[in-house]
Amino acid sequence: MGRQRLQSFPYWHEVILAAMLAALLVFARSVAPEFLYPGAQAEMSTHIWELALLALPMTLIIITGGIDLSVGSTMAMCAVVLGLSYQAGISPWVGALLAVLTGAAAGAANGVFVAKVRVHPLIVTLATLAAYRGVAEGISLAKPVSGFPAGFTVLGLGSVAGVPIPGLIFAVALLAAAVVLGKTTTGRSIYAIGHNELASRFSGISVDRIKLALYTLSGTAAGMAAAVFVARRNTAKADIGQGMELDVITAVVLGGTSIYGGRGRIVGTLLGVLLIHETREFVSWQWSRDELIFIVVGALLIVSVLLNTVLSPRRR
Amino acid sequence: MSKKRAATKHGAGLGIGQMLGRLARQREYGMLALLALTVAAVQSINHSFLAAGNLSDMLVQCAPAAIVACGMTFIIVMGEIDISVGSMMGLLAAVVGVLVSKHHYGMSVDLSVLLTLLLGGCLGFINGLLVTVGRVPSIIVTLGMLTVLRGVTEMVLGGEWVTDLPHGLRFLGTGSLAGVPICLIVAAVVAVASIVVATQTPLGRRIYAVGSNPDAARIAGLHETRLKTLVFTLTGFLVAVATVVSVPQLSVIESGIGSGFELLVVTCVVVGGTSIKGGKGTIVGSLLGVLLLGTVRTDLIFLRLGEMSTYWERAIQGAFILAAVLVDHLVRRRGTVEAEA
User: Fold this and answer.
1) Inter-chain contact B318–A299, Cβ cutoff 8 Å?
2) Is the reported ipTM for this assembly greater than 0.85?
3) CATH says B20-340 is which class?
């Protein structure tokens, strides 16, 4: 009875993640106390926003049983659009809007192929991963654009009442994602699609429309992430966001979303993003070696999923 | 529509399997036609495109992708995927470089190559075990591996380049036997062996059986675990083979080798008609995919669109995949209409 109750407790994964995060922070505190100083953490938090923004729609997409590998390339394409439009004399704020629109269009194209042409999302977004990066390189000829006005960098580095502006954008997105997924019929439909797409279709859920919306949302988020990134780094180049899709998927899967669909929560993703962020920052703080970050993050992904399958034996 | 019906009329008694086989073969003819069209178009604009020297260069460029695509086809046919092959190639290149370099271990070329091949097999085996015994989805395992191995590569190289490759190793990349570059001979051997395994042996039939219906295959007594582990191990080994014959073409080994290689290989296999859901696909299709996509850059250069045009290479590769899936979609729709009729 007690064992059964333990197994039916729905937040095991989140508890494990929180424990891992706590363990990491305790370890960090004992090795390098300065790492936990608010100033240092605030400084490092500027790196988290692109990952965090992209992880939200990715969670919803993976819950439907899909995947979006093109987010990093979409980011690059949007950044290049922003850069080139600024170079052409358009205000960077309008450029940022154009970047978000470009992202939405790119995401919608993914969505059309997934929902209407019914191609496996892995293949569609693998193709657009190459295609969008290629377009970014093609239209910018791989040249960087920099020297945005100081007023624009506020978007990446500024803050309102102590809260960073990208953080505000993220907070709104987070709230929206959590409410939609947890409290609305659309949210329940998203889980239903992931559990059994055919049954969802027969029960009248507009599967295609939801999928199209989710991929469009993912592209839009990539556009926003690109604008924030360009504003923070003050440069737009076709090679940004390389490998971003891996970080995002790692964060989402680490957060307990099943890659087979049907299972996952925004809270988990939030913890996954935090865990990856703190791990990366701590490793680079303590040893300042990028290669270690790769090894630790990759191992984290495999081990967390391995633990998950071991803990829940009835899953495939 | 009616023309198509007439064409298949005499085959009305064909089973579903044969009909699917037909469709798969049609895909290869289509690929061949597209390849011929591309070659003819480029040749008509630039007459030196089909010169023997350029042809050989292009094939040499395609060799590593062709070698790995053979293993990848088996993996995807089994319903799995391996996106760690690029990072694996990077690590194996670093390892072979460090082993032969006088500044590091200074081993003999034979021993270093042997150890590299062994390591490739081991890495593939680890992937396979995590997928089969660990029951972690292959996309997750190899995504994790992609990241981990990239880190290990940089650790092995320590941020430096290996530049003192001995003549014996360079020969594997640049040498030729009887006028044919070694990497082409190796690629041809791997390709023929894979085609034979896929079409003529019980092993090949088992791989396709597990891919098309895992439950039925299990009931029929096939060892899914063993077969999948074997195929992942084989792919790891083939990555090592590709590394050994392609990396020494350059005189420098650095940590960027192999980045993006996994995308090229998976793309070629998928464009070549292998279904990502498993059970369907041929080695020949994958090889045609390699020839089509591996030569995009050369095509662009020979089209004399100006040197800036090579920046569009990746966009064109992506467009090829989307075109392939669109064609598939149209063919499939026609196929289902016929099946219902």
Assistant:
1) no
2) no
3) mainly alpha
